[in-house]
From TrEMBL:
<keyword id="KW-0418">Kinase</keyword>
<dbReference type="InterPro" id="IPR003594">
    <property type="entry name" value="HATPase_dom"/>
</dbReference>
<feature type="coiled-coil region">
    <location>
        <begin position="11"/>
        <end position="38"/>
    </location>
</feature>
<dbReference type="InterPro" id="IPR036890">
    <property type="entry name" value="HATPase_C_sf"/>
</dbReference>
<keyword id="KW-0808">Transferase</keyword>
<keyword id="KW-0597">Phosphoprotein</keyword>
<keyword id="KW-0902">Two-component regulatory system</keyword>
<dbReference type="InterPro" id="IPR036097">
    <property type="entry name" value="HisK_dim/P_sf"/>
</dbReference>
<dbReference type="InterPro" id="IPR005467">
    <property type="entry name" value="His_kinase_dom"/>
</dbReference>
<keyword id="KW-0175">Coiled coil</keyword>
<dbReference type="GO" id="GO:0000155">
    <property type="term" value="F:phosphorelay sensor kinase activity"/>
</dbReference>
<feature type="domain" description="Histidine kinase">
    <location>
        <begin position="50"/>
        <end position="309"/>
    </location>
</feature>
<dbReference type="Pfam" id="PF02518">
    <property type="entry name" value="HATPase_c"/>
</dbReference>
<protein>
    <recommendedName>
        <fullName>histidine kinase</fullName>
        <ecNumber>2.7.13.3</ecNumber>
    </recommendedName>
</protein>
<dbReference type="InterPro" id="IPR003661">
    <property type="entry name" value="HisK_dim/P_dom"/>
</dbReference>
<dbReference type="InterPro" id="IPR004358">
    <property type="entry name" value="Sig_transdc_His_kin-like_C"/>
</dbReference>
Length: 312
């Protein structure tokens, strides 16, 4: 009888140890996968930061030379005006050349060309700033951050996936931004959350593209709505990212934040993006990440974040 009890006790302990070992192994696998994903995001951030830095140097040269070039052009036009005033009859050869180059058109168009160059430089500078915003490295403490800057920089990174393709039109992004204060957070990590949620929305819309006729898409274009609001008490902000794609079944919705769960084909999904997004929002920021979806109508993710670091 005693031997049987000992064997039963040993069996129970063995099962408990096996369960603990299985849980530990699963936790290690999840941690390893998260480290791999974080390393990928870190590599992307370094790449983007490097590109932004390399862009800044030549753009700086161009921007620095445009104003002097504009002044030189005005000086040359002034000199031509003076010549024409002092030499009203320069001769047939000069008159033919003036007509051949269409001097009056050059007077009108050249300043416009320089202005368009300046606009191009300004646009490149804006892109570079957005790239640096996206790739910013987090400190070991939270800092105030403009969430709209993070969202905009993420959209810029994904812009190539929003453009029209051969078989379907562009994906429209509608921004409905509220008046938000700066939020104390790990900005780089939240940019990763925005990246994962927006990429997921684009994936859903691309899948929907394959299931709908072009005429149907043109009648009800695919769209991503990004809406931000400040709570009435001023203590929380919400970021809502909604698409009108294929939506989810109830079963998929229940598992969407599980590690390694994905409905995408091999090579297109890792099952990590939404799980890591939830971990960043919930564990790192004390917030909430909710999903609402209707099959065939679309999906909406809502991020709720405290405005200030509640761990202070």
């Amino acid at each position: 009888m005693g031997v049987a009890l000992q064997q039963t006790d040993l069996l129970i302990k063995t099962r408990q140890q096996a369960t603990q070992l299985e849980q530990t192994l699963q936790h290690l696998q999840e941690t390893q996968l998260q480290l791999v994903q974080n390393e990928k995001m870190s590599a992307l951030g370094n790449l983007v930061a490097g590109v932004a830095h390399e862009i800044n140097n030549p753009v700086g040269f161009i921007a620095g030379n445009l104003k002097p070039a504009q002044d030189y052009v005005q000086d040359l036009f002034g000199l031509i005006n003076l010549y024409q005033e002092k030499l009203p009859n320069p001769g047939q050869d000069l008159e033919d050349e003036i007509e051949a180059i269409d001097l009056e058109y050059i007077r009108e168009d050249l300043p416009k060309l320089i202005d368009s160059m300046q606009l191009g430089v300004n646009r490149i500078h804006e892109i570079s700033t957005s790239l640096r915003t996206f790739s910013r490295s987090d400190k070991d403490y939270k800092v105030p951050f403009n969430l709209h800057d993070g969202i905009d920089s993420t959209i810029l990174i994904l812009k190539h996936r929003l453009k029209p393709h051969e078989h379907y039109p562009a994906i429209e992004v509608v921004r409905d931004y509220g008046n938000l204060p700066q939020v104390e957070c790990f900005a780089g990590q939240l940019n990763q959350v925005f990246m994962n949620l927006l990429a997921n929305a684009i994936d859903a819309l691309e899948e929907s593209h394959r299931q709908r006729h072009l005429a149907n898409i043109q009648a009800t274009p695919h769209q991503i709505l990004i809406q931000t609001r400040l709570a009435e008490d001023g203590e929380q902000v919400s970021i809502r990212i909604a698409d009108n794609g294929i939506g989810m079944t109830e079963e998929v919705k229940q598992r969407v934040f599980d590690y390694l769960f994905t409905t995408k084909s091999v090579g297109k999904g890792t099952g990590l993006g939404l799980a890591i997004a939830q971990q960043i929002v919930v564990e790192r920021h004390g917030g909430r990440l909710k999903v609402d979806s209707v099959l065939g109508q679309g999906t909406e993710f809502t991020i709720i974040l405290p405005v200030t670091d509640e761990t202070h």
